[in-house]
Specification:
The chain is α/β, with parallel strands linked by helices and 340 residues long. The chain contains ten helices and ten strands.
């Protein structure tokens, strides 16, 4: 076990910004790659790299199709991928029904999905709820990411059976989970973990993003544990990767003043979106050894979270069960996807 705890603070960000990940070199020739949150920033830069490395088909999950067309133009202008190989599909991560429809569409439209980069994410400056009734950060960063991962399992198993190569679901997380402390999560047994962080009185702008990414790690642990029961051997690899602190528009909902200050700070302690995307693409090329692991910079992270093991284990088991319960209300059969 490593004795290194947490992210390492601002100095680590400063160091990482000056030591960006290596350029990915793995081939994606012949593969169908899905990227969500693909119209700007990390998702767009990752899509460009997948195309440059030979992806045969590139599926872009975008909320706004007009902006998706702009992203498609950028990708085809910077790479040699044919225009008809870049496919746009509408995806609204504030809607469980949109995610379900998106998953049905691509699972029915494509013969294979080799790589799924689940990149959509937000950092909210204030409390807001989706039409589904969930605080936006929890819905986008955790619940619909989990929903899409579960919805893709059957198609990605079929892909592995056909190709003989493991498919991979690469979930974009954040090293921010390493800094979450026990006293950030004061959830009693009288309420669920998700209900607690869905309440406006428990919303903390400085903590909610970190907590959402911690809950995402709990989901990864849960789905990997369920997969251990499988005897099929064709389950996709589930890896969580972080691009590190990057100059993106994830904080676009913050006021101008905060964005201006943050942009100034980021010039010194953040990578470009292109540099951050290198990590996402390289981690998407890993094999079975990546299953259940956390990829950071150019390899697997050995840093430990500040959360104590007892707190982690308790919250993980509760959160995993709660995520399934929430999703089953919108897709009653979604847990069936965990079975071979």
């Amino acid at each position: 076990m490593s004795n290194k705890r947490g992210r390492g603070g601002v100095l680590a960000n400063f160091r990482d910004a000056r030591n960006p990940p290596r350029e990915p070199t793995a081939s994606f020739t012949g593969k169908t790659v899905l990227v969500t949150g693909a119209n700007t920033g990390l998702g767009l830069e990752a899509a460009v790299k997948f195309a440059s490395l030979g992806a045969e088909n590139l599926i872009l999950g975008v909320r706004n199709l007009t902006k998706g067309e702009m992203a498609k133009t950028i990708i085809t202008s910077r790479t040699s991928i044919p225009s008809d190989a870049v496919l746009l599909r509408e995806l609204d991560c504030n809607s469980f029904s949109s995610v379900a429809a998106f998953a049905r569409n691509i699972s029915g439209s494509f013969s294979r999905i080799d790589v799924a980069l689940l990149n959509a994410g937000i950092a909210a400056p204030s409390y807001s709820r989706s039409a589904d009734g969930w605080e936006s950060t929890i819905q986008v960063n955790l619940l619909v990411t989990a929903q899409l991962a579960l919805d893709l399992l059957p198609k990605m198993r079929d892909t592995a059976r056909t190709t003989g190569i493991p498919s991979i679901i690469n979930i974009v997380g954040s090293e921010a989970f390493l800094d979450v402390r026990d006293d950030w999560i004061k959830v009693g047994l009288e309420e669920t973990v998700l209900e607690h962080f869905n309440k406006q009185e428990n919303f903390d702008m400085q903590h909610q993003y970190h907590i959402s990414k911690t809950l995402l790690m709990f989901f990864q642990e849960g789905i990997v544990r369920e997969m251990e029961k499988s005897k099929d051997g064709n389950d996709p690899v589930i890896v969580v990767s972080t691009p590190g602190m990057c100059r993106t528009d994830i904080g676009r909902e913050f006021g101008f003043g905060i964005r201006a200050v943050f942009a100034g700070v980021q010039m010194f302690i953040a990578r470009s979106s292109e540099q951050g995307s290198r990590t996402l693409v390289t981690s998407a090329a890993q094999g079975r050894e990546a299953h259940g692991r956390f990829w950071m910079n150019d390899g697997y992270s050995n840093r430990e979270p500040y959360l104590t093991k007892a707190k982690w284990d308790e919250l993980q088991s509760r959160t995993w069960a709660e995520v399934l319960q929430v999703l089953e209300k919108h897709q009653p059969d979604i847990a069936e996807n965990l079975k071979d």
